Amino acid sequence: MTTLRERTRQAVRDEVLTAAWRLFARHGFEATTVEQIAEAAGMSRRSFFRYFATKEELILVRLIEHDEKIAALLAARPATEGAWTAIRAAVAPIMESHEQHHDRSLALIRMMREPGLRSTIAERERLWIGLMAPLLAKRLPRTSVPFDQDPRPLAVAGAAVMALSSAQAIWAEHPDKSLSRLLDRAMSAFDS
Amino acid sequence: MTTLRERTRQAVRDEVLTAAWRLFARHGFEATTVEQIAEAAGMSRRSFFRYFATKEELILVRLIEHDEKIAALLAARPATEGAWTAIRAAVAPIMESHEQHHDRSLALIRMMREPGLRSTIAERERLWIGLMAPLLAKRLPRTSVPFDQDPRPLAVAGAAVMALSSAQAIWAEHPDKSLSRLLDRAMSAFDS
DNA sequence: GTCAGGTCTGACACCCGGTGTCAGTCCTGA
DNA sequence: TCAGGACTGACACCGGGTGTCAGACCTGAC
């Protein structure tokens, strides 16, 4: 049960978010100042920072929601599946959705590659890895090494992010290619 | 042949770099202001920015030099070696050096994990991948896919970075472990 | 030697993201 | 209705980064 305060606060956050994303889409991330976002949302600059700690957070929040869905899909894969198979399957719906809303996804992915957003994207990948690694640990060949001393889950989650990211990098330049197929090709370099 | 101007400029850059790294080591990256660095190097804040575009660059420059040496080692591996074998071999001397200068390396690696340096490290990894990917391309199983449409080199370079990074993450917490062995264990999740 | 060109420098004002503080207002629950 | 906390705008400040200007400095040509 949430209090009224929390709900109104969330509503304000949502308003700021949609106002901000509209501005980002129109002018880009860096070119949009916090002042403009605050004004579009009808509040002072200072108040903006009472709802969001940083401008980056406006981007991150949405991306994290998205990533948590993927994590849920991964967790729902049958326990018998190996790490690579499971992660490939968990990510498949996203690939399909990207190819369905081709132009919108392409524009989004290209915006994400804006230099001013690099550190945000890096942070997103960091969080993504932290989210996926524990889910992958059980799907790796067993060892006697204790959890917190086994680098493999982090490495596999990281490699998966890199496969995705490199597939998207190629796709951004050659949007006629199939994103799913690019991802398969990228991952083929690991699983062998 | 370089001009006198270029050489003095380089000398000044070196002085600023050593002054800055001394301060970073003592107080950390974020806690050190550009003003302090400029003062330690005997110049104004404005002049500092005439030698380095950003404070990050002070960190990046040194890391990139380091990474270029690894790239050279990778390029020098026999052409018959596969991508994973070659990259593991190219990185081996670094691992040894880290274990030899155990405490200094550990302090350095821990400083690199400072939150304020995350975006810098991300940029470093980005550049590292760009450096390694073309060297790995020839060591992958041949396909009919043209160079610029093959995501595998980027993916493999990215995965290698992630293996390294996860090995270092574990090492930072368990410095008694062997870094080489951690890296082997991380990479064992790929090569199979 | 001197004079004109470009370079390097400090100083100052400014932008933007982010924070501390304060006083006033609004909301909630007793 | 009233006390306490939450929310707000305003303002001053910090630190990284940039544009600009005027003076010092260096260099090469005459």
TrEMBL record, chains A, B:
PROSITE patterns cross-referenced by the UniProt entry: HTH_TETR_2
Residue ranges flagged as DNA-binding region: 33-52
Superkingdom as given in the UniProt entry: Bacteria
Domain HTH tetR-type, residue spans: 10-70
Keywords in alphabetical order: DNA-binding, Transcription, Transcription regulation
Protein name (record): TetR family transcriptional regulator
Gene source species: Nocardioides dubius
Origin organism lineage: Bacteria, Bacillati, Actinomycetota, Actinomycetes, Propionibacteriales
